[in-house]
Specification:
Elements: E1 4-7, E2 10-13, E3 18-24, E4 33-39, E5 46-52, E6 58-59, E7 67-72, E8 77-82, E9 91-98, E10 107-108, E11 112-117
Parallel strand pairs: 2-11
Antiparallel strand pairs: 1-3, 3-8, 4-5, 4-9, 5-6, 7-8, 9-10, 9-11
């Protein structure tokens, strides 16, 4: 089973930036769709960004223009560059893999905490 390991979370001030990384076991090229989700305390998990093997990435309205998802197949790593962070971006961020493009995310990382102070 594919393993995913996130890193890069931390504490940052409003307006700051962070880059999250998600290292995958096996070949990233084989994964149809990689995504970043987040979950804040007391809130439902939400899809933040996704990047398919081909085609343009997609973003939640709340992060479009501030976050960028990218896939580095040479390093088998997916990144989430987060700029102009806001307190409402505070959450645990998870990466997930939809291996076959069936809409099911079968592999998840352990999560990394992002805290944005006002």
């Amino acid at each position: 089973q594919r393993q995913l390991v996130e890193s890069g979370g931390g504490l940052v001030q409003t307006g700051g930036s962070l880059r999250l990384s998600c290292a995958t076991s096996g070949r990233l090229f084989d994964v149809y769709n990689m995504a970043w989700f987040r979950q804040a305390p007391g809130e439902q998990r939400e899809l933040v960004a996704s990047a398919r093997r081909a085609g343009a990435p997609t973003y939640a309205d709340s992060v479009r223009g501030r976050f960028t998802i990218s896939r580095d197949t040479a390093k088998n790593t997916v990144y989430l560059q987060m700029n102009n962070l806001k307190p409402e971006d505070t959450a645990v961020y998870y990466c997930a893999a939809d291996e076959y493009g069936n809409g099911r995310y079968d592999a998840w990382g352990q999560g990394t905490q992002v805290t944005v102070s006002s």
